[in-house]
Amino acid sequence: MISLTRTAIAIAALLLTGCNSPLFSRFSTAQTPETVESEPRWPPLPQDPLIQVYFNHNHAEGADYTEPYRGTTRPGDDLEQIIVDSIALASTSIDLAVQELRLPKVAQALAERHRAGLRVRVIIENTYSQPWSEFQPPSDQDELEQRESDRYQEFLTLADTNQDGQISTPESNAQDALIILRNARVPFIDDTADGSKGSGLMHHKFVIIDNQLILTGSANLTLSDVHGDFSNPETRGNANHFLKIASPQLASLFAEEFNRMWGDGPGGQNNSEFGLGKPPRPPQSLQLGPTNLRVQFSPFSPKQPWETSPNGAIANAIGQGTKSVKLALFVFSEQKSPIASSRFATREPKSKPSSTPALPIATSVKDWTC
Ligand SMILES: [Ca+2]
Ligand SMILES: [Ca+2]
Q1: Per-residue pLDDT tens over the stretch 83-125
Q2: Whose atoms come closest to the Cα of 271: which ligand?
Q3: What pTM did the predictor assign?
Q4: Most buried in the list 28, 181, 226, 298, measured by CB within 10 Å?
């Protein structure tokens, strides 16, 4: 969890002009052609030199790209290409921790850098650590299994490039992300590496490049989270974002979390830490230009004081808002937050007269338009 101490929405507001950071100049992303869609467009917000934000549903003018798999040109930032470009420019190391990795181009970029001699390490959640090519659709499916079967059918539609109803070895080698990593012998673990059956909590989505650059956000590295369903050309994927932050100091904090999970990786020692097996990690602050960042990683044991948890830190940041708070969430179930308990909506800012109206609050998921 990353929160700015001003307000959560300050992340979007702090996007300033240009990519003039020496770090970012190494990781710049090519932009894309005209759109075929006709929704209203608006001028893009300027980007911050050190903290850049991208939305796959970005409707700003000029934010268009042509999807690599379906060939559709659509509004949005190409989150996959942004990650691929950053990986391709790495010169020493890449650490990737993500719940699910199914995007072939990301896997190919990791494989290429590993073959070039860089240190590449990958952590995935155990539920998603099996290559689709080895997936066996169960005969008696419950609802969850049906969903997985539907996703498997998506993979078949993508990977069966000669449309003969079979996934050949060359097709698997080209389109199955985890097979691509395996073929390249990229070091890889999942959250059973701690000797457990898996935490079910390895929900990270971050990449550390050269211990200098962090890519992190809400998207799993799947077609449906980044581009849209392969078999349904009208879809544009779940609304997601990714941040690209140039900061060796921030990278060191993410590396500490990564190394805690990695242990000795696929080596013989049983020294990985996942889920509640991790010790309490308090939030840490760092200054990045004019922006104060606070970083904290979950999960967090319920035996610890809630106020010291990531959700407590978010609530604290919300409570410091003086003008407005805007939330764009997939789900909001934390009953202890100031908004959930309605305390924030009725609170008067301490420094304002008692006639000051309550802070405006937007919490509807439908408000999420990027
Ligand atoms: Ca085939
Ligand atoms: Ca190990």
Answers
A1: 999 999 999 999 999 999 999 999 999 999 999 999 999 999 9
A2: 2
A3: 0.84
A4: 226
CA of 154 to the centre of ligand 1 (A): 14
Most confident of 249-263, 296-310, 348-362: 249-263
Reply yes or no on whether the pLDDT at 142 is more than 60. yes
Closest-approaching ligand to the CA atom of 168: 1
Number of residues that this document lists for the chain: 370
The Cα 367–Cα 370 span in angstroms is: 9
Instruction: Give 195's pLDDT tier (boundaries 50, 70, 90).
Output: very high
Distance from the CA of 209 to the center of ligand 2, in angstroms?
Answer: 22
Kindly give the distance from the C-alpha atom of residue 152 to the centroid of ligand 1, in angstroms, as a whole number.
14
Residue 26's CB is within 10 A of a number of other CB atoms, namely 16
pLDDT of the residue at 33:
44
Secondary structure, 3-state, 62-107: CCEEECCCCCCEEECCCHHHHHHHHHHCCCCEEEEEECCECCHHHH
Distance 182 CA to ligand 2 centre (A): 17
Reading the block at residue 267, the tokens are 């080596």
- Ligand that lies nearest to the alpha carbon of residue 162, given by its number in the listed order: 1
Q: Give the DSSP letter of residue 366.
A: G
Distance CA 138, CA 148 (A): 10
Residue 267 has pLDDT above 60, yes or no: yes
pLDDT, greater one: 21 or 194: 194
Half-sphere exposure of 47 (CA within 13 A, CB side): 20
Ligand nearest to the CA of 273: 2
Report how far ligand 1's centroid is from the alpha carbon of 284 (Å): 50
Q: What domains sit in the chain, N to C, each tagged with a CATH number?
A: 2-131+178-305 (3.30.870.10), 139-175 (no CATH)
**Cα of 155 from ligand 1 centre, angstroms:** 12
Q: Which ligand is the nearest neighbour of the Cα of 264?
A: 2
Cα–Cα distance, 46 to 361 (Å, whole number): 24
Report the separation in Å between the CA atom of 164 and the middle of ligand 1, taken as the mean of its atom positions.
5
The answer to whether 31 and 58 have CB atoms below 8 angstroms apart is no
